[in-house]
């Protein structure tokens, strides 16, 4: 238990201090029309601090930290100068390479039957990471939404990680939780700090790595696809609907719109109720994913 308490407290404390500093900066390093500051750096610093405090040098965890750092940099640059969609995708694919090269690979998939992917398992793992990075970024459209959607998901993945005695992934989960919960103090409605692309893409990357490793990717067992899909279901579903909607409207899939599920709920119920509804959906979806894995 001690090996969990130290990193989670470190992540929460460092994220809280960093968030306070960012919230009280007189000069905003990201020039937003509403004047609010981007808090993604606080979440990143909190997570990394929590991971390194134990001095763990597991090679796979080191590569995951490298990947987290790369995706944070991509998001931060996008916050600062607005990258083109192609530039963002290039950076996201680049960030997905370190953990996959380190063994976070989908060798076999379980979907009722086991399907061997062979060498294509590397590509599927990269696509899963890039897909969730963008899904998290797209659903981060209301104050506190992404934070509350991810909390049940990160709690749930701890259980299969513990069952598989995957200590590094347990630590990664609790560190992410510590940072998110600490940051939520500044991110709930009305938010003083926003995640920005640097924060949302970082958390999407974290969710992708956890749903891969906790459910069998990179190990001598089959990856459980359906539990992973359900735990990441809300961001993924919103992204799929957005792509289909834009294609039907003959628009670029990269164009922005106000028709995401959170926008529609916001217009009908307001910001707080919309976030509560979606967080509740995420909770039940994550629990259903855990149940499927257990069975």
Question: Nutshell version of this structure?
Answer:
Helices cover about 70% and strands about 5% of the residues. The protein has helices at about 1-25, 40-50, 60-80, 85-100, 120-140, 145-165, 165-185, 195-215, 225-230, 235-250, 260-270, 270-295; strands spanning about 35-40, 110, 115, 195, 225.
Q: How far is the N terminus from the C terminus?
A: 27 Å
Radius of gyration: 18 Å
Number of DSSP strand runs: 5
The low-confidence parts are: none
Strand content: under 5%
Structural class of the helix and strand makeup?
mainly alpha
Please describe the biggest sheet, giving its number of strands, its sense, and whether it closes into a barrel.
3 strands, mixed
Q: What sort of overall outline do the alpha carbons produce when their principal axes are compared?
A: globular
Mean pLDDT across all residues, rounded?
A: 91
Element order: H for helix, E for strand: HEHHHEEHHHEHEHHHH
Helical proportion, percent range: over 70%
Integer tally of domains: 1
Number of DSSP helices?
A: 12
As laid out across the biggest beta sheet, the strand order is 3-2-5
């Amino acid at each position: 238990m001690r090996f969990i308490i130290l990193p989670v407290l470190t992540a929460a404390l460092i994220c809280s201090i960093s968030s306070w500093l960012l919230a009280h900066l007189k000069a905003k390093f990201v020039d937003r029309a509403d004047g609010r500051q981007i808090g993604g750096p606080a979440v990143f610093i909190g997570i990394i601090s929590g991971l390194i405090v134990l001095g763990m040098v597991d090679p796979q965890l080191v590569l995951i930290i490298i990947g987290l750092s790369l995706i944070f940099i991509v998001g931060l640059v996008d916050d600062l100068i607005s990258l083109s969609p192609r530039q963002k995708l290039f950076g996201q694919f680049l960030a997905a390479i370190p953990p996959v090269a380190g063994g976070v690979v989908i060798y076999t998939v379980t979907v009722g039957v086991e399907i061997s992917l062979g060498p294509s398992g590397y590509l599927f793992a990269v696509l899963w990471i890039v897909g969730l990075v963008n899904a998290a970024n797209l659903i981060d459209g209301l104050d506190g939404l992404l934070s509350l959607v991810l909390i049940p998901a990160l709690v749930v993945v701890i259980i299969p990680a513990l069952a598989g005695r995957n200590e590094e992934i347990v630590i990664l989960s609790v560190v992410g939780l510590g940072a998110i919960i600490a940051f939520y103090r500044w991110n709930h409605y009305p938010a003083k700090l926003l995640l920005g692309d640097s924060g949302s893409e970082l958390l999407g990357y974290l969710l992708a790595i956890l749903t891969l490793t906790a459910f069998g990717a990179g190990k001598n067992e089959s990856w459980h696809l359906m539990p992973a899909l359900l735990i990441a279901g809300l961001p993924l579903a919103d992204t799929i609907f957005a792509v289909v909607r834009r294609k039907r409207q003959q628009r670029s899939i990269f164009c922005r719109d106000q028709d995401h599920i959170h926008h529609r709920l916001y217009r009908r119920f307001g910001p707080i109720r919309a976030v509560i509804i979606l967080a509740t959906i995420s909770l039940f979806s994550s629990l259903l994913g855990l149940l499927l894995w257990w069975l």
